[in-house]
Design goal:
Glycoprotein, Type 4 Pilin; Dna Ligase, domain 1
């Protein structure tokens, strides 16, 4: 389901407001009921520095555990403060960060040869390890399908060819991706 432009813009504002509220020690503003906000849906929030595009945080929910508005708010706060690859975002830093949202469709089993770079996000699970890369990642890096599969394995802490193992599970998903730079 593709959201209307005003819904996308509102979700981006909600993500930023949730981070701002958390940084001030306040609860995020309540969200008025709209059907698209209440639909349970997975989402990822990516924070990057304006100008350089340097990653500053990326966290999300694959499964549709919460209404979309709550998913985005939770993921935004987690990306800003809980991504253990980075120091927490500060209030003075937040205005210099760009927010991108990836609203996920439900993951489904997929064969390696069905993976389309730029269309599918990918989850590789094997031997208790799991790695996920969003659909935009291989495009940003200029990867082909095999390289995308390999890097998803590496993200899971697996050997790069683990996707070929018979016990490896591949799940694909699509996502509606947009960000501050689109508005």
């Amino acid at each position: 389901m593709t959201l209307p432009r005003e819904a996308r813009s509102r979700l981006l504002r909600m993500a930023r407001e949730a981070i701002e509220a958390q940084l001030r020690g306040k609860a995020p503003a309540p969200v008025a009921g709209n059907p698209w906000l209440e639909e349970a849906r997975g989402a990822f929030v990516t924070l990057s520095r304006r100008g350089t595009g340097e990653l500053r945080g990326c966290i999300g929910y694959v499964e549709p555990l919460f209404p979309l508005a709550e998913t985005v708010a939770r993921a935004a706060v987690a990306a800003a403060l809980e991504d253990d690859r980075f120091a927490p975002v500060t209030a003075t830093e937040l205005p210099s960060l760009s927010i991108d949202l990836s609203l996920l469709e439900a993951p489904h089993p997929i064969l390696a040869e069905q993976v389309e770079v730029g269309r599918h996000g990918l989850i590789v699970s094997c031997g208790g390890h799991r790695g996920l890369l969003l659909p935009q990642v291989p495009v940003e890096h200029g990867w082909d399908r095999t390289t995308f599969l390999e890097h998803t394995c590496l993200k899971a802490g697996l050997p790069r060819d683990a996707w070929r193992r018979p016990d490896a599970e591949l799940m694909g998903f699509t996502a509606e991706v947009f960000g501050d730079d689109d508005y």
